[in-house]
Amino acid sequence: MCLDVGECLVDETRVWSTWADVLGVPRFTLMATLGGCVARGEDHERVFDRLGRSDWRALESEKEAAFGGFRSGDLYPDALPTLARLRQGGYRLAVIANQPAARHGQLAALGVNADVMAMSGRLGVAKPDPAFFARALELMASPDPADVAYVGDRVDNDVRPAAAAGMRAVRIRRGPWGLLQDDTDGVAALVVGSLDELAARMPEAFTP
Ligand SMILES: [Mg+2]
To answer: Is the pTM of this model over 0.85?
Structure first.
């Protein structure tokens, strides 16, 4: 099985709080405006335009320095226990997600151990591009896609494209995308509210 990072393993509150601080806007304003973008079906980068900060890319390194990489407190409390439980259950684990390349080492340092780990920033291809899911399957040594569950919070970036790639799409409903997006096509093989719930219900993702 393959897991997403943002709002699946990692709570991104500190990422967005750091952005608010670097931009000099109230955290509440940034968070709520981001939620509005998600609800409108807009790309999350639109939040910067709405805040009048289309120059945000120039501040990326300042944000990253202030953020300082993932810390253990950024992991959802059920992340590491679930990975351990799934591994004990015989599942091979992959963590392949839309993240900067540096997040790979940061996750490993926090104890996120997977058989395969890859970030879009290194791969040069990102979700929802079908090429991302094709590359993910290659990295997992080309299993039958139907034997792979892709677990993610976003219907647009995770659930739909993973299902289109022939994988079992598992939707985790946490974070703003998980709560605001609708799986109108009903393509998710399993919907859970947490990784704890996933660990308990994983076999259901593979029932026809
Ligand atoms: Mg995510």
So the answer is: yes
